[in-house]
Amino acid sequence: MTLPSIERLRSLLFAPAVRPDFLVKLPNSGADGVVIDCEDATPPNAKADGRANAREVAPQIAGQGSHVFVRVNAVASPWFEDDVRDGLCDSLAGIVVPKLDRIEDVDRVAGALDAAGFSSLVILAGIETALGVADARALLEHPRVGAAYFGAEDFIADMGGVRTEGNQEVLYARSQVALAGRLAGIPVLDQVVTDFRNSEAFERETREAREMGYRGKLCIHPGQVTLANSGFMPSEEELDFARRLLAAYDEASAGGLAAIDFEGQMVDEPLASRARQILAAAVDD
Are 261 and 143 members of one domain? Predict the structure, then answer.
């Protein structure tokens, strides 16, 4: 089965499924992807209302510039089956599934989607448990998974650790999920910044995430979207350097050279490849 491609997800903005007034405004955020959240943002006594809102609002906001997803509850929860059966629609780009850590659970999601008539929906996998991080490569290589995210808060809760501003406690896990996404060939999004008023922390984490190979960031407030979108785009300085490097490298290659001295730096194919990636990332969809 060939699933729809989701290449650009610099920003993925979540909004509570129980707030239809928020949901209808999601397309105005400028986010590459928006998520109607039936999980954490929807309390247990409002799950049915959240599903109904998701099913009603998703067709209204689809096709307005953002990929639209619904985040269902975890496979092990008592709400998962009802979420898939009653909370989805054909207008969605995919389904966000939190706390995936076993291949059998991904198979169960795929089976539930098929049974409900949504076999074309992409699974965006939440990797946010100790087991999920340990087995991330196998999970993200599942043929029904088209994107993923790393969830630091749930991961540290599962580990029994302590969350810190410096992120040292999630460095290994964060790197592991980024690597797994690269090997699987899918975009992976970085953790949330829960202090949504702290733009400095968000910008710092976005730089870290891009340096690690992440393609985007989870957003819990519209104010974070612009920071994510700009943070995962090359700067003008990067673009200018990449253009000059490639011009020099291509000229040398045509003359039979495999490596050159460019502005005091030894440049060969790996650095030229990175320059091509930078230029490609600046091209709008």
Answer: no
Both 210 and 258 in one domain: the answer is: no
159 and 245, same domain (yes or no)? no
Is residue 46 within 8 A of residue 18, CB to CB? The reply is yes
Range of 35's domain?
11-231
Could you give the CA distance from residue 246 to residue 79 in angstroms, rounded to a whole number? 52
The model's confidence at residue 7, banded by pLDDT at 50, 70 and 90, is confident
Q: Do 195 and 54 share a structural domain? A: yes
Q: How many other β-carbons are positioned within 10 Å of the β-carbon of residue 144? A: 20
Torsion of CA 88, 67, 129, 136, to 10 degrees: 110
Q: Specify the DSSP element, H or E, that contains 135.
A: none
Quick one: which of 98, 123, 99 has its CA closest to 110? 123
In a domain, 55, yes or no: yes
Please tell me whether residues 116 and 208 are part of one structural domain.
Answer: yes
**Segment 161-219, tens digit of pLDDT:** 999 999 999 999 999 999 999 999 999 999 999 999 999 999 999 999 999 999 999 99
pLDDT of res. 285: 46
Contact 126, 97 (CB under 8 A): yes
Cα separation, 141 vs 128, whole angstroms: 16
- Tallying the residues shown for the chain, one arrives at 285
**What pLDDT is attached to residue 57?**
97
Q: If you compute the radius of gyration of the chain from its CA atoms, what whole number of angstroms results?
A: 20
Distance CA(149)–CA(47), nearest Å, equals 23
Half-sphere exposure in the Cβ direction for 70 (13 Å, CA): 34
Of 4, 12, 11, 108, nearest in space to 69 by CA:
12
Residues 268 and 152 in one domain: no
Residue 284 pLDDT more than 60?
no
pTM confidence score: 0.87
Residue 208 lies in a domain: yes
